[in-house]
Specification:
Helices cover 18% and strands 15% of the residues. It is α+β, with helices and mostly antiparallel strands and 254 residues long. It has one domain: Alpha-Beta Complex (paralog of FGE (formylglycine-generating enzyme)).
Length: 254
């Protein structure tokens, strides 16, 4: 696995893309399983109502796409920041960049795409993100059915900050995508809305969110419930650095 870095001569290195083939995503969680999920993670303090927006389970055909193997790093962000006057976090170059607003993440994608010959670099959709995390089955976590401490940088590991991207290779998804749980919470391009056929208790909007776009995967500060492939989240606080919001890239298939 090659970790991306800022290239020499002011040009970004080619992205370490993972090809995700077209396939069926087992999206979300069956409505009749929500109560059991809430009981399983009761120690995290997450109410059952928060899991309801994962329902119902649906089979969704997702076209082929590419996704970056790791989250965008501080080093990669630095070149864009220098060109656009944006700040660079005080963190090692191989850590994920966090504290990035959704509009700035989109701007980075556009900027990078232009420097990669006009490639359509973008944020992944919510369905693409879950497809890259889950693969062809309905696994609960990117690595399988059971949670295991040490496969992702989450609260239970006790680190309390980011780690170099790709530090947990045993926690890779079926396609070999890294850090899809923990380290940095990740923007998607999808605005929050209930899934079709969602339970009536599911809110039609999340007016309390700082940004309406769905984030996925959880950050170093989050509990293991956010490591679940189906868990839908959001940026609920204005301090995006404190809550660890970063991003990874998507593009059309090669």
């Amino acid at each position: 696995m090659r970790v991306e870095r800022v290239g020499e001569g002011g040009r970004p290195d080619p992205v370490d893309w993972v090809e995700v083939p077209a396939g069926v995503l087992h999206r979300g969680t069956p409505a009749d399983a929500i109560a059991e999920v809430a009981r399983r993670y009761a120690d995290t303090g997450v109410p059952e109502a928060w899991y309801l927006k994962e329902a119902p389970r649906a089979q969704v055909r997702v076209p082929a796409f590419r996704i970056s193997r790791t989250q965008v790093t501080v080093g990669q962000w630095a070149l864009f920041a220098a060109a656009t006057g944006r700040p660079v976090p005080e963190a090692p170059a191989d850590h994920p960049v966090i504290g990035v607003a959704w509009d700035d993440a989109v701007a980075y994608c556009r900027w990078l795409g232009e420097r990669l010959g006009g490639l359509e670099v973008r944020l992944p959709t919510e369905d693409e993100w879950e497809r890259a995390a889950r693969g062809d089955d309905d696994r609960e976590f990117p690595w399988g059915a059971e949670y295991r401490t040490g496969l992702a940088n989450l609260h239970d590991l006790g680190i309390g900050t980011t780690t170099p991207v790709g530090s947990f290779p045993e926690g890779a998804s079926p396609f070999g995508v890294l850090d899809m749980a923990g380290n940095a919470d990740e923007w998607t391009s999808t605005l929050y809305a209930p899934y079709p056929g969602a339970p009536e208790e599911v809110p039609s909007t999340e007016d309390w969110a700082f940004d309406r776009h769905v984030t996925r995967g959880g950050a170093f500060r989050h509990d293991r419930d956010l490591a679940r492939c189906a868990r839908r989240h959001g940026a609920y606080e204005e301090d995006l650095t404190a809550i660890g919001v970063g991003f990874r890239l998507a593009a059309p298939p090669a």
